[in-house]
TrEMBL record:
Keywords: Hydrolase, Signal. Residues 1-31 form the signal peptide. The lineage of its organism: Bacteria, Bacillati, Actinomycetota, Actinomycetes, Micrococcales. It comes from the Bacteria. This is LTD domain-containing protein. GO terms for biological process: carbohydrate metabolic process.
């Protein structure tokens, strides 16, 4: 186990830091609080699992009770996450807030039981967010510390993107300053002593370098006690230049206190460990040697370790370790390439890295040097490090993949991709920049137009849809019908870009030719889940499309909490339309009834179900979406991958294809209707070797009609347009294409048919048998009679129509009220019948004619039996039956017939 920093040592050493912090922390950062509790580390998004954490450290002079304390994100609401359970934090002690379980976090980071952990936090941090710590109920007066960050932002909020690598302060000046630009990535072996967790994350949770090391530097029983004046000594200036100006690799200290401080035996090192520190020889301005730094004065010296121009660190220690070794850390500063002097990889004219103002300010690069004296004059020429604001080399902003992982236990083991190992770029570079997404990322779902294989639709999760056509191997925007720059899409009701910002992730084409698009939230309120399916009419020429319909399914997923930005981003990804014909033919079971799926039981749902992919749990949720905007959940399907980013029903393989991105190593799982009627995983495929392990969030298969030499195209979308990284030929591209075999050799599926009929077998009433692919049921005891050989015999053929109704067969017995389908028309039995064909009038069948619109009046049919009061439409006129009638057509000229004109 990794032990926590010694409470006695760390607590006493913290006094050193607090003296410096008292003059450097902005008052606004901690309001009226004098507790000394400070944010010292954070990671908003782990590389795997649920290891997000925040570290708080007591850098004060007394223990702090967390009674009445709380944490919140940018909602800044005191009391949201109570911290009382952390108890009392000793001086120098650190505590952790994490979304993990206590046991999981300790195991991941090898922490012993002494580290205080508040586990199970559900107020998760986002990429751009805020950490707020309160010691009471008032959001202003009780604000202890705050850190506002956004790696995509500018100025003080632009900090490191802490995905799998924690953020730590550059130096003590960053503590409590609410300036994320003064924070940096942790690194294995850095001044924090950071290490790698069991899942590959980097950080140092539970211990902070600002709590110090070594023995008590102000112990009155220690004859070598230097007192407290040393607390006012700070590193003030650094230069990595080698020439003697005044010395090579120069370091300056400043004493902001009112008393001289003896430097005898003090030690210094670079980025190495404290054990490598050695004594330095200080000089005053003018070069005179000294062992004392005067009150409000300066000394400088040449680093005992060479300072690298490409980035390094300076750490100064008291000699209060064993036998005069480095003990208490007085101060430490790190810098990057070119910040502290000439560097060939990033030369921008810096002469030194200096505090502005002396002793209390943050470090900046300056043109001049002022070793042994105030930095005031040098601070008049502050230089901007080009590396802090790199000039984009592309008109878009690629983003590296995050969250890479492997398939969970229970997932199908993937086999090699059944096609070409190579993939090719399939779009123009930086092709997807929009007004709402100028960075050009976030192309997610893909779907081929089933009526035109040269058309591919894509959706971008900043509220845009594209209609693409293939030109020379690249997918480019169709220039017809207003599609040239894509179309901005909106929730129903308005085109207000401030309040109406659907975070659109996946899309499919329904049987009606419309586009159906999933959302997981409204980006105008991006910490609130909004899992909807929107319908759009792609034939409209408008450049802005407002959804014609919305099915809001948010309440179906209470596990995704409002106010939690992380959970709001784990909602619907892909969606696909699965036709009823496929489901019925294979005996799919409706989980809501426990019986075979019967589409006619959902009369407003159309001709298929919509399977929505939920990223949070890797499951597909099958819904009947009704024309009145209601819905019914029919089934839940587990892909076993843990997460899912896109889903597609492929009519040619008769399989549902589910994609998981780099979270699962970019794995595709095919699902089928199993023998029980449930949809289950069938086979899983690895990604093609040439497809990068990026945030691949979209996938589409070209129809089999495009097969050439046994191969058809597959297309993937890289959400981060990262490709192989900066400068690579694939950087800035979202679409990649490869080949897949047209014959995958997939086996059968569905609920098995009964065993083949045998003439030597005895069959009792209700027994079933198969003959020539047809299913028959015994009406009574029989042996030797072949099913289908006698229309009035012992066997009745059993068949099911696409809508779930029984198909009429000549050998089956139907009772009063039974509904059947015959030649695409629906009929109801008026009495017991067998062998009498539906249709015509006067027989045992009455046609059931559905209205053309919900709640409307059906058309008249000569094969329907009507009773008084029933209404029909005939030749554009509405009639009402006066009495029982069949076969007589309505007529407006009949005054005394069975029909009366009513409209």
């Amino acid at each position: 186990m990794r032990p926590h920093t010694s409470r006695t040592i760390a607590g006493l050493a913290a006094t050193a830091v607090v003296g410096a912090l008292a003059v450097s922390l902005p008052i606004a950062a901690h309001a009226d609080s004098t507790s000394g509790v400070t944010i010292t580390e954070w990671m908003y998004n782990p590389s795997a699992g649920k290891g997000e954490f925040i570290e708080l450290t007591n850098l004060g002079t007394a223990p702090v009770s967390f009674t009445g304390w709380s944490f919140d994100d940018d909602s800044a609401d005191p009391g949201t996450v109570p911290l009382d359970s952390l108890g009392t934090l000793a001086v120098g002690e650190s505590a952790i807030i994490t979304e993990s379980t206590d046991a999981a976090f300790r195991a991941e980071w090898a922490l012993d039981a002494s580290v205080k952990i508040l586990a199970g936090n559900t107020v998760n941090l986002g990429r751009a967010d805020e950490i707020n710590i309160f010691d009471g109920p008032d959001e202003v007066a009780n604000l202890v510390d705050r850190l506002t960050y956004d790696d995509d932002g500018t100025g003080a909020v632009k900090g490191p993107r802490t995905v799998g690598v924690s953020g730590v302060p550059n130096d003590a000046a960053a503590l409590g300053a609410n300036n994320a630009s003064q924070w940096k990535f942790s690194a294995v072996g850095d001044a924090e002593g950071s290490w790698t967790s069991t899942v590959g994350a980097i950080g140092s949770p539970g211990t902070s370098r600002f709590a110090g090391e070594g023995t008590d530097p102000t112990d009155p029983t220690d004859p070598t006690d230097p007192g407290s004046a040393w607390q006012h000594v700070k590193i003030n200036e650094i230069s990595s230049d080698n020439p003697n100006n005044p010395v090579g690799d120069a370091v300056e200290l400043v004493n902001t206190g009112d008393a001289d401080v003896d430097l005898t035996g003090w030690l210094q090192t670079d980025s190495g460990a404290a054990a490598s520190a050695t004594a330095f020889a200080a000089k005053l301005a003018g070069g005179a040697a000294t062992t004392v730094i005067p009150a409000h004065g300066y000394v400088y010296f040449s680093s005992t370790k060479g300072l690298g121009s490409g980035g390094d660190a300076v750490k100064v220690y008291l000699p209060d370790g064993a036998n005069g070794a480095a003990g208490t850390l007085v101060d430490s500063v790190e810098y990057t390439g070119g910040e502290a002097g000439t560097d060939e990889t990033n030369g921008f004219g810096a002469g030194a890295f200096a505090r502005c103002p002396d002793g209390t300010g943050g470090f900046v690069s300056v043109a001049g040097k002022s070793f042994g004296a105030s930095n005031a004059e040098a601070c008049e020429t502050i230089l901007e490090n080009p590396a802090d604001n790199p000039v984009p080399t592309l008109p878009c902003e690629p983003e590296g993949p995050s969250g890479s992982g492997t398939l969970p236990a229970g997932a199908l083991a993937p086999v090699a991709w059944p096609g070409s190992a190579t993939v090719a770029v399939a779009d123009a570079q930086c092709a997807w920049t929009t007004a709402t997404g100028p960075e050009g990322r976030d192309v997610s779902g893909l779907v081929f137009d089933p009526s035109n294989p040269n058309v591919l639709y894509s959706v971008k999760n900043k509220s845009w849809i594209y209609r693409l056509v293939n030109q020379g191997g690249l997918w480019v925007p169709d220039t017809a019908n207003g599609w040239g720059a894509g179309k901005q899409i909106f929730f129903p009701g308005s085109t207000d870009t401030q309040s109406n910002q659907p975070d659109t992730e996946g899309l499919t084409i329904g049987a009606d030719g419309a586009l159906y698009v999933t959302t997981e939230r409204n980006n105008a309120a991006n910490d609130i889940p909004l899992n909807s399916i929107l319908r759009f009419d792609p034939t409209r020429s408008d450049t802005q499309l407002v959804a014609t319909d919305e099915w809001n399914l948010t309440a179906e997923f209470p596990e995704l909490h409002a106010g939690n930005r992380t959970e709001a981003n784990l909602g619907f990804e892909g969606v696909t339309f699965v036709p009823d014909t496929y489901l019925v033919a294979n005996g799919f079971v409706d989980q809501s009834t426990g019986k075979a799926y019967r589409p006619y039981e959902y009369p407003l749902h159309g001709t298929g179900l919509y399977f929505a992919a939920l990223e949070n749990d890797g499951k597909l949720y099958a819904y009947a979406l009704n024309s009145d905007r209601t819905f019914h959940r029919v089934a839940v399907v587990d892909t076993k991958m843990g997460h899912v980013m896109d889903v597609q029903f492929d009519a040619d393989t008769q399989r549902i294809w589910a994609l998981c991105d780099n979270t699962c190593g970019v794995t595709t799982t095919l699902l089928k209707v199993g023998a029980s009627g449930a949809i289950v995983p069938d086979v899983a495929y690895e990604k093609p070797a040439g497809l990068l392990n990026n945030n691949i969030e979209g996938f589409a298969l070209a129809p089999a009609s495009t097969c050439v030499a046994g191969t058809r195209a597959a297309v993937w979308s890289d959400d981060g347009i990262y490709g192989a990284g900066p400068g690579s030929a694939t950087e800035g591209h979202a679409l990649f294409t490869g080949g897949i075999s047209c014959d995958l050799g997939l086996g059968g599926q569905g609920v098995p048919k009964p065993a083949a009929w045998s003439k030597t077998t005895v069959y009792n009433t209700g027994d079933r048998a198969s003959v020539d692919g047809k299913v028959f049921e015994a009406l009574w005891y029989t042996k030797g009679e072949k099913p289908g050989s006698n229309t009035s015999g012992a066997w009745a053929e059993i068949a099911i129509a696409a809508d779930g109704h029984d198909l009429w067969t000549a050998t089956r017995i139907f009772d009063t009220g039974d509904v059947v389908v015959f030649q695409g028309r629906t009929f109801k039995a008026l009495w017991w019948t067998r062998g009498q064909t539906p249709g015509g009038s006067g027989g045992p069948w009455s046609e059931v004619v559905a209205p053309t619109t919900p709640g409307g009046v059906p058309a008249w049919s000569a094969a329907t039996v009507y009773v008084g009061g029933e209404k029909v439409v005939y030749q554009g006129v509405t009639y009402q039956a006066q009495w029982w009638v069949t076969g007589t057509a309505p007529s407006p000229t009949q005054k005394y017939g069975p029909w009366k004109v009513i409209g």
